[in-house]
Amino acid sequence: MTEITIRKDLQVAMRDGVMLAVDVYQGTEDKPRPALVAMSPYGKDLQAQSLELPPQRRPSPLWDGCLEAGDIARIVAEDYAHVIADLRGSGASGGEMVGNYNAGGVPLGQDAYDLIEWVAQQPWCDGNVGMVGVSYFASMQVFAAAERPPHLKAIFVSGGHYDFYETTYHGGIMWFMPRAAREGRGGDSGIAVADVRSRMLAEYSAEEVAQRVAARLADPDVKRWPTLEHVLRYPKNRELWFDIVLNELDGDWYEERNPITLARNIDIPVYVQINWGRGWTVDGSIELFKTLKGPKKLDLLPYPPMQERPFHEVHGDMFRWYDHWLKGVENGVMDEPAVSIFVEGTRERVTVDDWPPQGVEHRPLYLRPRRKLSATPEPLDTEWAAPDGFYQAPLTVTDKVEMLTWSTEPFEATTQMVGTGAAHLFVEIDTDDTNLILRLWDEAPGGGRQLVTTGYLKASHRELDDRTTEGNPYHPHTRAVPVEPGRVEEYVVRLYPFANAFRPDHRLVVELSCNEPLVDAHNSLLPPEAMHLPSGRATGHKIYRDATHHSRLVLPFTTD
């Protein structure tokens, strides 16, 4: 193993006088070299476990989602300095963190700018700076690049979270995993809290906060989930999650620090990378890629969704990128197509020049009686093709998640799909709201299956906006419109981007429910609390799929 020189607890002054604590790892040879900067609130000392803990795959009990700063030994061996910093309000750093991603306090991008410029002036750095780390660390790279520090030459963002509303509310349905990452639950160490504050408590009067808390507790979904009531009653115990629970609609709260909005300012080279199976993050990664102005790459990686921890995967891709942009090595990385797509099923890589790829045609697969999916719609009216249905009792009184499934006949030839999709469902609901959760599977002849993609929609968030095109719906999530009980209405659910080739004799299977199964082949690959807030209403659902109501999937078939 390469010998490492370690500088611990260096103090770096920010423009407002707050001091950030930084550790630096580098080779023993005393010379300037490029530096890779990692920033998060998860604790720089935790990241040093990459020197001692072998990488763990989910569902290992030692897998820790906060070990994300990169493989220190490998980075040093490749002749880079590895700089790991605690964000303000966390770890050994001073100052306070206000709101998630510091949305209410000093913008984190400013701190990143100041740290990068400090690094570039150190005798052990040659003035060429990049950044490293997945998830929160990756999002920090976007914040940093948007501030345009002169010495930040390129970034490599893998597994980041960008549209933070869509990270915490999938289709308007609350997702618990960001809470785990902040608090340290179910496979995450959480934030190394030093001084973390709620933005809601900082900006709103006690009366205004009390009114919003009361409104959230009036939602049966929230009221019937005890830990959420605890968060709302005792916000100082859970400052960051309190803010998220109180902001269930998209808008200025999230957009002010939305990395995708800020990415319009980025013109340095950016490599964007994400694994299939994390649909919401794939959507955000693609949106980030399309927003960027400078040299860029998009790399869509194989399932499963969660990389090993401590994070060490894809370092080969990263060093190839940084060797070119930080060391000036002509390795051909920019001579290749901009987009690389791993296609599940055939497990082949496809390279194209842009996203979405050319040669894709959105075609329908219709829901039919007897739980079939067909290329042709049902010819009989409702009287003869009576709707499918299910009743879901709240999980306060049952542990059974009800689910409907439809499937194609076995494919006769390899059938490839690449892109986004949609589900058009004509549903009659007997309460004022519910969840619509879809999961598409590639099922092999023996019954083995792998997740293809997912879709989520809170029924009260069904409005579409003008970005919507065939097979690519968008919901603004800026207001909730209660369901009219007993009315048949079309709900269009966005299916997150995917790439899958269904081989001969395989089937496409779609599941519909309003809650998720607590345990299955996909969820076991995620941390234990990576689930969505269940519906708290006792709800009946009727799914109409007849000559009048063309309930269907609209999927991106490749034609080349």
UniProtKB/TrEMBL annotation:
InterPro entries: AB_hydrolase_fold (IPR029058), CocE/Ser_esterase (IPR005674), Galactose-bd-like_sf (IPR008979), Xaa-Pro-like_dom (IPR000383), Xaa-Pro_dipept_C (IPR013736), Xaa-Pro_dipeptidyl-ppase/CocE (IPR050585). The keyword Cell inner membrane does not apply. It comes from the Bacteria. Its EC number is 3.1.1.84. Pfam families: Peptidase_S15 (PF02129), PepX_C (PF08530). Coiled coil: none annotated. One of its GO terms (molecular function) is dipeptidyl-peptidase activity. The keyword Hydrolase applies. Keywords: Hydrolase. Residues 319-554 form the Xaa-Pro dipeptidyl-peptidase C-terminal domain. This is Cocaine esterase.
